[in-house]
Amino acid sequence: GGSSESGAPQGAAPDAPSGLRGEVLPADNRVNMAGMNPRLLAALERASGLYGRPLYLTSAVRSAQEQKDMYDEWKRLYDAQPADRRSERVISPRYGVLYKPGQYDSEHTRGNAVDMNDTVAAELDRMGILTTAKLKRPYADRDPVHVELMERGGVLEEGRDRKSTRLNSSH
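^ thats the sequence. predicted structure below, dont judge the formating
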């Protein structure tokens, strides 16, 4: 994808050569990748190539109803825990390991976020692969499986002023 290369601020790490493009696969048949932001998929493929192995997604695009159902399941299991030992990490028969999701809305419902194994996500973060691929774990402390683009609305968060200036001066 050509759009992923044009938005990098000067001095940023170069994109991985196309030969390093990796694989991004659903962990099982419940993971919906249809409707995923193509820039997110390209960034995940770049991260996989740098990592040298496929990335298996445990969740990707969700409908608003799926998001609500997931939150309701999390809330039911969270509330069922003894009050003095509650954890935001619950085990769901339907979803597996589940961290507190958004109740009605999420970057998942817009196709801008994925979940993956928390150990893999932390390793990609620690190795600097997420940053190089323009990805981030904004809730690493309370939702360590969640990964999304560094950008919002097409503007890189780290280079917002620089990119906005460049966009305004190009026409």
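The longest strand covers residues 55-59.
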